[in-house]
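User: I'm putting together a small comparison set for a docking exercise, and I want a reference complex before I start. The sequence is below, and the ligand is BIS(adenosine)-5'-pentaphosphate. Could you produce the 3D structure with the ligand included, as structure tokens?
Assistant: Of course. I'll restate your input first, then give the structure tokens for the complex.
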Amino acid sequence: MSDLNLILIGPPGAGKGTQADRLRQNFGIPFISTGDMLRANVKQGTELGKKAKAYMDSGGLVPDDLIVAMAAQRLEQDDARDGFILDGFPRTTAQAEALDAQLRKLGRTITAALLIDVPDQEVVKRISGRRVCVANGHLYHVDFEPPKQDGICDEDGSELIQRDDDKPEVVQQRLGVYHEKTAPLIAYYDKQGLMRHIDGTGSPDRVHDHLRAAIATALREDDV
Ligand code: AP5
């Protein structure tokens, strides 16, 4: 099989991280989340983290030049040689163009761009109930995917917390930024024949099934 290079697109809280983790387990390729990478930089107090924090806390986008350099470095690591699942990158047309240019240089192509489509009011419900494992980022939802024990991660026993940017006023800002800056990527990838629309409103298992089916179709078309 040739390399499997997937992009997940969707509003904040659509379930990109939830699904990326499942796809990682299915296909054995890394899931690369620019949001997780930025949060790790903030936690470690790196120069990048210091620059990114104010943008993230206000629900805005971190400038393209910082993100493109960070993502480019990650994509060149050995574990991404057979493929990758990008979650939260690209998020602007400039980032998508930079990714295209990098892949061209590496002689690689995008297999599919997968839109997880969820209406804004559902996104707000998902984000307000999200809880994240403080040690390893495992994801839960207080109603839809609750941990066995309140406030404790099933996987490693760590504390579950709410993200700083999951406050209601910041979520509204993030949604606005998504519609203005990221939604245009749907047309961008449509034009290249790469866009697949996935109904993201069902259960995580159902959304996962839709994604698997869309990836299988994209791979078949790739082979023709
Ligand atoms: P990032 O971390 O990428 O946040 P996001 O895109 O806003 O997405 P989320 O992580 O909030 O949601 P998700 O779609 O992964 O949903 P999840 O699976 O957690 O970015 C954060 C910030 O970093 C940005 O605002 C920006 O400042 C900066 N940044 C990052 N990348 C950048 C870039 N490329 N350029 C510039 N700036 C960048 O699910 C949500 C909840 O719903 C969970 O509780 C989950 O359990 C639950 N859930 C999932 N699926 C379902 C389902 N089917 N049914 C019911 N509940 C579900």
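The chain has nine helices and eight strands. The chain has a mean pLDDT of 95.
User: Thanks, that's exactly what I needed.
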